[in-house]
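pasting for the record
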Amino acid sequence: MLYANELSSEKDYLDRANYFAGKAIEMFLNDTSPLPKASTHHDHYEAITRGDTLMMSLLRLWKNSNKVEVDIGLGYSDR
């Protein structure tokens, strides 16, 4: 949704990205740890589950939603 918003500048894509981000936050983040859970059935973090990609996407969504024009140097480490 973020890429579609960046390409088209249509707000509907950003709205949908916010919807999915809310679902992800609800399912994978909690008050006990700043790291995303390995799954909806576990309370621990595992790097292999690509929680870093989720967090980078949430940061990118915040950047796009707030129209931050500064390059914050997002460095993805997807395998």
